[in-house]
Each structure stands twice: as structure tokens, then as C-alpha cells.
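Researcher: Next sequence.
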Amino acid sequence: MRSKNEVLYKQNEELGGRLGAEQVKNEELTSDVTALRAETIIGENGALIHSPHPFLSSSQPFLLQNSQTRW
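Model: Next structure:
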């Protein structure tokens, strides 16, 4: 019985470690989304975006023409 408990304990530790790593990734992605939202200025005619972010790496801002654009 003891060896079965040890195996289950080790499996639990391994799964806990993997869950922790996924949580870190999730927090990093949440931070990226928050940064992207903070870099967006919404105006009457659309959204003017200035971004050094790698996903929006244009050197010039661009205008989203549709003011109904949803993020």
C-alpha cells in the first residue's frame, strides 16, 4: 500500500508542477493582452494603434476604419 501511495504522491507532484507552468504561461498571455489593450486608443472613427508590441510590429500606426470593431 505504501508504494502505491508513493507513486500517487509523485504523480500528484508532477501534475502540480505542470499546472504551475501552465499558470505562468496564462499569466504571461494575460499580461500581453492587457498591454495590447492599453496601447489602443479608441476614437470616433476607429482605433488608432501605436504599438512596439511584436504582434503589432508596424513602425507606423494604422487606422481600423470600422468603429464597431470588437476585440
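Model: The first strand starts at residue 40 and ends at 43. The CA atoms of residues 3 and 9 lie 10 Å apart.
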